[in-house]
Amino acid sequence: MTGEKRAKHQRPTTRSWAEPFKIKMIEPIKMMTREEREKSIAKSGYNTFLLDSEDVYIDLLTDSGTSAMSDRQWAALMMGDEAYAGSRNFYNMVETIQEYYGYKFVVPTHQGRGAEHILSQSMIKEGDYVPGNMYFTTTKFHQEHAGGKFVDIIIDEAHKATSSCLFKGNVDLEKLDKLVKEVGADKIPYVSLETNVNMAGGQPVSMKNMKELSEYCRKHGIAVMLDATRAIENAYFIKTREEGYADRTIASLLKEICSYTDGATMSAKKDGLVNIGGFLAINDEELFVKAKNMVVVYEGLHTYGGMAGRDMEALAQGIREAVDYDYISYRVKQVQYIGEKLEDWGIPIVTPVGGHAIYLDAKRFLPHIAQKDFPAQRLAAALYVESGVRTMERGIVSAGRNAETGENYHPELELVRLTFPRRVYTQSHCDIIAESVADLYDKRDEIKGLKMVYEPENLRFFQARFELL
Ligand code: F0G
Predict the structure, then answer these.
(1) Which domains does the chain have, with CATH numbers?
(2) Nearby residues of 426 by Cβ (< 8 Å), 6 or more positions away
(3) pLDDT per residue over 283-340, tens digit each?
(4) C-alpha distances in angstroms, 1 versus 10, 11, 12?
(5) pLDDT digits (tens, 9 = 90+) for 375-406
(6) Which atom of ligand 1 lies closest to the CA of 392?
(7) Catalytic: which of 21, 84, 325, 409?
(8) Ligand 1: which residue has its CA nearest to atom 18?
(9) pTM to 2 decimals?
(10) For ligand 1, what atom is nearest to the CA of residue 269?
């Protein structure tokens, strides 16, 4: 063996990690040629949401509804009780949510935004303010649709792409207090608290911060509503980063997180390890009755809310699997593994790396493209052409326009999200992904901006179309 060859296979200083499962069934994927991908992205208006999934090699568009279910979840599907009313799967799901999340009442919904809709309509009045630790697209939409105004109260550090802050998702209590003093607590129906803040890069909130928020809000008679979509991933970060929690189980941390809040909306398509589903969970009975009345209009009867019986059974099983330490540590470590490679290779990403995704910093990746020419949108399209890896823009397109002035928001963060489906891709896929990004980084100077040629009215990032400048 030559010395060079040996260097290629250096023995690592720490033991490698591996997926805590083995493969029982496979789904073939294909790799197209570069020319085919160029055609396909042009046809899709340079919007990765508009690509056909068949034309994608490794799909990192989202971690939402893209998880692989376990053999036990597939077995649970066979236990579906597809009754219109009172399915046993519903009761099993409710008991599981009560056991692991700790809330008293559960309203099932077809997915997260169904729960956001019902919560917003039930609690927000015209002219209210809804402070939150950074916006999420659908969450903010529903808050504003109900007549509220979203106010960002996340710590400043969250808006910086690079930071050494380990809890970039934290709420800035001074910002909240300032708002309370300005508008009065009676204009604030609740604080919208997101765990593992998606738009900040999958960044966790510390237990200490949640506790302090809860104390503040209880003192001022303001509710705290959790977006529990990635609360289990947040629990992992608390266990591994925050002092005093190392010996705790993920399940007990999840329950403690929820105990600082009055209710939660949940997109079960993430932490819940299912392909569809969600719920609204709350402690207040009056609010529960109101939500239950509304769910029958928009989602389905209050004992299925848009989910099939089998989906509810798979979710109950998914929650039990998601709090397993071996699973969740693999989940987060897989993302960290790629993040470390990219950082080592000097590629600009959001740091510290979060729980569900790597975020490329398009402002530093493509510094020659002005934000008005959609650098992150362009970068996502270029990465697809380079490698068949599908990602998503999280920058000026996702931020949309100010509803009152019609002006574009100019978010500080202009990012491309590489989001990891749970239990789907292997470490070899991770290597390919990192190498593809690095290859594109070498060619970054050749990449030019875009112009928007079609802009939908709501949540424009899903369907907007672009042309090359
Ligand atoms: N809240 C958060 C934090 C989310 O990330 C999402 C969805 C939702 C609510 C809405 O849930 O999709 O089930 O209606 N996020 C997906 C994503 C779409 O790709 O980040 P949903």
Answers:
(1) 34-63+325-468 (3.90.1150.10), 71-322 (3.40.640.10)
(2) 19
(3) 999 999 999 999 999 999 999 999 999 999 999 999 999 999 999 999 999 999 999 9
(4) 13, 15, 19
(5) 999 999 999 999 999 999 999 999 999 888 99
(6) 19
(7) 84
(8) 64
(9) 0.94
(10) 13
